[in-house]
């Protein structure tokens, strides 16, 4: 077959020290400096959000150049996150499942444009014919979780086929191929297709064929694996243990777990030709065309065979996916032209700009200045205040800057007003200040990570203007000047 081109208890955390991360061997001096910046960003993020623990990794040219760890995988036992901690992947699991289907297609074992009913005759004729490609791109018409599914994590399903029985008799939301509608149930069905064509259980195919040697497999959060992080949720701004949750209803849609390094290596190997060919991977990034000629889209990204495809803030092409579920927030971002992969995984359900956070953690390792480069600015160590505009409103506050180990570090006190109200309008920990971490290797403040309770964001000096700008999304930005 060929590709169709059209086609925690918050108070517990106070006073606990965060252990030093385990560092990969063999990095260059530039990588060492980059690692210190990314370590600092990750630690500041855990502090700002109140998420008990996070891990992250960056892989370049197929080699791990950084693994970062911050906080605790088990607060109650005082066990820190380390390089070997496994987190829930949530919906990042979907790109693993899509890659499994793509590999089978490449081997001639799966026709991704044939009706799924021909692969799984036990489905019957309840639905109009739908294809593997449509399942992978969320255009099959299958629904996502519904009210009747609320207790789905309280039951263990012995097989993928048994899990498909949960939704097998439901009506499609649309004619297959005519509309984009995100569906984790579609990925449960996709995992059944993989299992049928691979001839082995889905989880075995993932662990033995797609990810041999990687710490990537079924979620083990509620089991006996001491390396698996506990799961947390936020209640009144504090992280508390989440109840057990069995993901056997959708291993392929949101039930896998991995270390940050393992999932970043998986992404790097997928785009590097080690799991599927580079041509096959490129085909996975081809946007899915709907029946009316429009493209499947999720917010500002097009949707291909499992992957969302867009651009970073500098216009570089990225393939990415994020995940959210009880006890997890996750992201994997790939830069195919740069052969760079970055992941960030966490052990609590929190509202976040998680893809942007993964992107910022990788900035020190990218080795290329953004285009156009922000104008050079010295660290404003003499500044004591700032003026700002946010959501069309002007306000001011106090600021403090200092040089720490060659890095410009700033603290912005949040005065009562629109910015403070917005950043504190989410379930996680509230903030009375925001930290800035300079990303200029020369110690200036031309570019910085601004650390908020919803993630890391990109602050840049503005050409021809005295101030800085950070975008929190397509419709929300903050401008700043320091005095």
Q: How is this fold's topology laid out?
A:
Layout: H1 10-13, H2 29-49, E1 53-60, E2 63-74, E3 79-80, E4 87-88, H3 93-106, H4 116-119, H5 132-136, H6 160-164, H7 184-198, H8 202-210, E5 216-218, E6 232-235, E7 238-241, H9 251-254, E8 256-258, H10 260-272, H11 278-284, E9 297-298, E10 301-303, E11 308-311, E12 317-325, E13 328-335, E14 340-346, E15 348-349, H12 354-362, E16 385-390, E17 393-404, E18 407-413, H13 418-423, E19 433-438, E20 447-452, E21 455-461, E22 468-473, E23 476-482
Parallel strand pairs: 6-15
Antiparallel strand pairs: 1-2, 1-14, 2-3, 4-8, 5-8, 6-7, 9-10, 10-11, 11-12, 12-13, 13-14, 16-17, 16-23, 17-18, 18-19, 19-20, 20-21, 21-22, 22-23
CATH fold call of the largest domain: Beta-lactamase
Q: Within the largest sheet, what's the order of strands?
A: 3-2-1-14-13-12-11-10-9
pLDDT below 50 for ≥5 consecutive residues: which ranges?
A: 1-23
Shape: globular
Number of structural units classed as domains: 2
Return the average pLDDT rounded to an integer: 92
Number of helices: 13
Please give the largest β-sheet.
Answer: 9 strands, antiparallel
The CATH class designation of the largest domain is Alpha Beta
Label the CATH architecture of the largest domain: 3-Layer(aba) Sandwich
Oligomer: single chain
Strand count: 23
């Amino acid at each position: 077959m060929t590709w169709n081109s059209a086609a925690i208890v918050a108070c517990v955390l106070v006073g606990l020290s965060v252990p030093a991360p385990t560092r990969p061997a063999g990095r260059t001096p530039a990588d060492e400096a980059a690692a210190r910046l990314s370590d600092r960003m990750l630690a500041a993020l855990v502090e700002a959000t109140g998420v008990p623990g996070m891990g992250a990794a960056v892989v370049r040219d197929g080699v791990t150049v950084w693994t970062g760890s911050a906080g605790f995988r088990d607060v109650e036992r005082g066990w820190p996150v380390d390089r070997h901690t496994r987190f829930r992947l949530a919906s990042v699991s979907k790109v693993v499942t899509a890659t499994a289907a793509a590999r089978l297609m490449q081997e001639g074992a799966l026709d991704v444009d044939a009706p799924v009913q021909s692969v799984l005759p036990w489905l019957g004729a309840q639905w109009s014919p739908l294809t593997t490609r449509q399942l992978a791109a969320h255009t099959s018409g299958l629904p996502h979780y519904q009210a009747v599914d609320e207790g789905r994590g309280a039951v263990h399903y012995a097989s993928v086929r048994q899990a498909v029985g949960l939704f097998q008799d439901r009506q499609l939301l649309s004619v297959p191929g005519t509309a984009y509608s995100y569906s984790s149930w579609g990925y449960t069905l996709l995992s059944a297709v993989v299992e049928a064509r691979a001839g082995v259980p889905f989880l075995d195919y993932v662990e033995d064929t797609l990810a041999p040697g990687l710490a990537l497999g079924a979620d083990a959060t509620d089991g006996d694996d001491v390396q698996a992080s506990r799961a947390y949720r936020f209640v009144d701004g504090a992280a508390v243990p989440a109840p057990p949750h069995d993901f056997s209803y959708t291993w392929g849609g949101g039930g896998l777990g991995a270390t940050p390094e393992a999932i970043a290596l998986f992404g790097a190997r997928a785009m590097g030709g080690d799991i599927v060919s580079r041509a096959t991977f490129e085909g996975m990034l081809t946007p899915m065309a709907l029946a009316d000629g429009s493209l499947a889209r999720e917010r500002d990204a097009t949707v291909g065979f499992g992957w969302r495809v867009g651009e970073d803030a500098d216009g570089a092409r990225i393939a990415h996916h994020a995940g959210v579920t009880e006890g997890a927030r996750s992201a994997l971002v790939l830069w195919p032209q740069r052969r760079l992969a970055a992941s960030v995984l966490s052990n609590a359900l929190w509202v976040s700009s998680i893809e942007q956070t993964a992107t910022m953690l990788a900035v020190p390792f990218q080795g290329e200045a953004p285009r156009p480069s922000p104008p050079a600015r010295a660290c404003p160590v003499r500044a004591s205040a700032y003026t700002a505009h946010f959501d069309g409103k002007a306000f001011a506050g106090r600021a403090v800057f200092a040089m720490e180990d060659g890095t410009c570090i700033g603290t912005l006190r949040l005065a009562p007003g629109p910015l403070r109200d917005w950043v504190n309008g989410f379930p996680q920990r509230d903030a009375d200040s925001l930290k800035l971490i300079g990303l200029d290797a020369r110690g200036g403040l031309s570019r910085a990570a601004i650390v908020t309770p919803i993630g890391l964001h990109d602050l840049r000096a503005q050409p021809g203007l005295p101030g800085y700008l950070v975008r929190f999304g397509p419709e929300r930005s903050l401008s700043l000047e320091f005095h």
